[in-house]
Amino acid sequence: MTERSGAGRPRSEQARQAVLHAVDDLLLEVGYAAMTMKGIAERAGVGRQTVYRWWNTKAEVLFEASVLDAGKELTIPPAGSPLADLTAYLDALVTFLARSPAGAAYRTLLAAAQHDPAVKDLIATKDVLDDSARTVLDRIGSPLPADQAVARLTGPAVYWILSGRDPAALDTKALARDFLAAT
């Protein structure tokens, strides 16, 4: 399976997927600072040119991998009530942030964005938490402006995880109740 981007050789979807899987593995094994484009290419079993054909930096590779996985991990089916929908979403969010390789990538990119303007600009292109939360909030019909609703819903869980607290001690149902009571 290949696709063309215009000029040049066809792109292999298999090679692209190998790179996206490799970046997650390397992040967990060596960390963001030690990760290199060369290392990503070697882990994926492709040439460096293949990696650079699609991405300019390791942050771009990591971001794409995180966005793709987050789209799957943060999509929840309707649960039957606003409280159940919000609780299910918050459970998925906590699992994503605390246990998922894609969540580790997202946390890493958030940290890097604090001192790297290019990473800050990159993650501003697609906010995976915003997109997934808006889907749930649209479903339940939140009366708040979308940006405020997303921040109010995701903020406590994101802060909890980023501050190193035990994810098991977070009561997502109580957070969902608080959100509904405040809106």
Describe what you observe in this structure.
The chain starts with a strand and ends with a helix. Strand 1 (2-3) and strand 2 form a beta hairpin. Mean pLDDT is 91; it is low at 1-8. The radius of gyration is 18 Å and the shape is elongated. With 183 residues, it is an all-alpha fold. Helix 1 packs across helix 4 (58-73). It is built from 10 helices and 2 strands. It has a two-stranded antiparallel ribbon. It has 2 domains: 2-55, Arc Repressor Mutant, subunit A (Orthogonal Bundle); 64-182, Orthogonal Bundle (Tetracycline Repressor, domain 2), CATH 1.10.357.10.
Short description:
It is built from 10 helices and 2 strands.
Comma- or semicolon-separated keywords:
183 residues; mainly alpha; Arc Repressor Mutant, subunit A; Tetracycline Repressor, domain 2; 2 domains; two-stranded antiparallel sheet; elongated
Please give the CATH class of the largest domain. Mainly Alpha
The tally of domains stands at 2
What share of the residues does DSSP label as strand, in percent? under 5%
Which strand order do you get reading across the main beta sheet? Answer: 1-2
Q: Tell me the structural class.
A: mainly alpha
Cα gyration radius (Å): 18 Å
Topology:
Elements: E1 2-3, E2 11-12, H1 13-30, H2 37-44, H3 48-54, H4 58-73, H5 82-99, H6 101-113, H7 117-123, H8 128-140, H9 146-162, H10 172-182
Antiparallel strand pairs: 1-2
